[in-house]
């Protein structure tokens, strides 16, 4: 059998004892987790609202298993559609302000399904250079011509749009909240350009749902531009404390996707437990605004504290806070040092970011306490000073 060589960077990091990936956690995803039998503060989770361990959501999952069993044993297209799937689709469409929605088994599959079927060989897909990997892969599957513009740079977007033939189909696809940088897509300007150059818009709101907008309805809602966005994509693996994804749009587009998105038609549907937990999370998000309020209080508290302590932060507008290290090996080393010292954060290195922009991705949950945030920032400051990381302005 043909064997690939191991990835060089992973081998080197393992030899140096600073390999930071696939760390096994032996507890629920919460503000504290257990790794190697030790308590570790979790500041690297996408569970922004801290709902993954909520007893009501766990109970809804268990009940769904009792009623519907553990799996659907087929795709939505054939034997895998439950009444529960339809109910969640109706609720999500109303929640984000679109006519219809369709569920996929992951957010990654939702993006693959949308891009591979909404655009084709003679069309153009226009991407922000920092869009998520699933958008890039979906674009490749579409055989469309892919054009990238510099991150959130509207002059560059306009220059790229100007160069395209006016009569062809064009779709701009952006992350609503960028997954590593934490900043928001400049949707008002993107909408204006899309109107001027007759272009569709799709927003991947994996990190915006449950975080920004009316009751957490996402980036389009935040800017009051829901009607101007053609397709909204979301995932349940972050604020919604579950697993799965969806696309929401007008009724015709969703009907088309149901009969053409191959990652939907040829893949098994969301499990009953995943659907029920997503629905229970949606109940909580729609009726208990205090979770989003606490998430933002925590985010602002952490941001202020990190800035006060002299860390170099990215221009975030969300609970995702990039803390720059600007050195690949030190980024791994510090993530390891922090974990040994009881703090989990995610190291971000190329190809996710440019080589001179390596960082720790520090992310907040609504369930963190201010004490936990202070403890985490103190641990970071200690570790940055020990490793002599120059982005820390003042050493302790
Ligand atoms: N889009 C973005 C912006 C993401 O960050 C992610 C997950 N990291 C996905 C899509 C894929 O979602 P899922 O985890 O549900 O496959």
From TrEMBL:
Gene3D superfamilies: Aspartate Aminotransferase, domain 1 (3.90.1150.10), Type I PLP-dependent aspartate aminotransferase-like (Major domain) (3.40.640.10). InterPro entries: Aminotrans_II_pyridoxalP_BS (IPR001917), Aminotransferase_I/II_large (IPR004839), AON_synthase_class-II (IPR050087), PyrdxlP-dep_Trfase (IPR015424), PyrdxlP-dep_Trfase_major (IPR015421), PyrdxlP-dep_Trfase_small (IPR015422). Residues 40-377 form the Aminotransferase class I/classII large domain. Belongs to the class-II pyridoxal-phosphate-dependent aminotransferase family. Pathway: Lipid metabolism. GO terms for molecular function: pyridoxal phosphate binding; transferase activity. Keywords: Pyridoxal phosphate, Transferase. Its cofactor is pyridoxal 5'-phosphate. This is Serine palmitoyltransferase.
């Amino acid at each position: 059998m043909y064997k690939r060589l191991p990835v060089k960077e992973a081998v080197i990091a393992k030899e140096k004892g600073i390999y930071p990936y696939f760390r096994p956690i032996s507890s629920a995803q919460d503000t504290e987790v257990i790794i190697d039998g030790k308590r570790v503060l979790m500041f690297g989770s996408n569970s922004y609202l801290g709902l993954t361990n909520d007893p009501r959501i766990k109970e809804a999952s268990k009940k769904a298993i009792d009623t519907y069993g553990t799996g659907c044993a087929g795709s939505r297209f054939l034997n895998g559609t439950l009444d529960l799937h339809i109910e969640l689709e109706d609720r999500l469409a109303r929640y984000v302000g679109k006519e219809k929605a369709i569920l996929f088994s992951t957010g990654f599959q939702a993006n693959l399904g949308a891009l591979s079927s909404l655009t084709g060989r003679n069309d153009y897909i226009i991407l922000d250079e920092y869009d998520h990997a699933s958008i890039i892969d979906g674009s490749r599957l579409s055989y469309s011509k892919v054009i990238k513009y510099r991150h959130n740079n509207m002059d560059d977007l306009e220059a790229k749009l100007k160069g395209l033939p006016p009569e062809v189909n064009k779709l701009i696809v952006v992350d609503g909240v960028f997954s590593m940088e934490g900043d928001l897509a400049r949707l008002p300007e993107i909408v204006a350009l899309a109107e001027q150059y007759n272009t569709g818009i799709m927003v991947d709101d994996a990190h915006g749902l449950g975080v920004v907008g009316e009751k957490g309805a996402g980036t389009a809602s935040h800017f009051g531009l829901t009607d101007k966005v053609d397709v909204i994509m979301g995932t349940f693996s972050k604020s919604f404390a579950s697993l799965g994804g969806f696309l929401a749009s007008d009724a015709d587009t969703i009907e088309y996707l149901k009969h053409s998105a191959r990652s939907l038609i040829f893949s098994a549907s969301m499990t009953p437990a995943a659907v029920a937990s997503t629905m229970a999370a949606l109940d909580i998000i729609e009726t208990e605004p205090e979770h989003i309020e606490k998430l933002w209080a925590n985010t602002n508290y952490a941001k202020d504290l990190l800035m006060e302590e002299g860390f170099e932060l990215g221009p975030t507008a969300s609970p995702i806070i990039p803390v720059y290290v600007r050195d690949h090996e030190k980024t791994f080393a510090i993530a390891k040092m922090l974990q040994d010292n009881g703090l989990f954060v995610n190291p971000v290195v190329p190809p996710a970011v440019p080589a001179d922009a390596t960082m720790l991705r520090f992310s907040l949950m609504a369930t963190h306490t201010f004490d936990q945030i202070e403890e985490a920032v103190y641990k970071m400051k200690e570790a940055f000073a020990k490793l002599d990381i120059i982005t820390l302005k003042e050493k302790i």
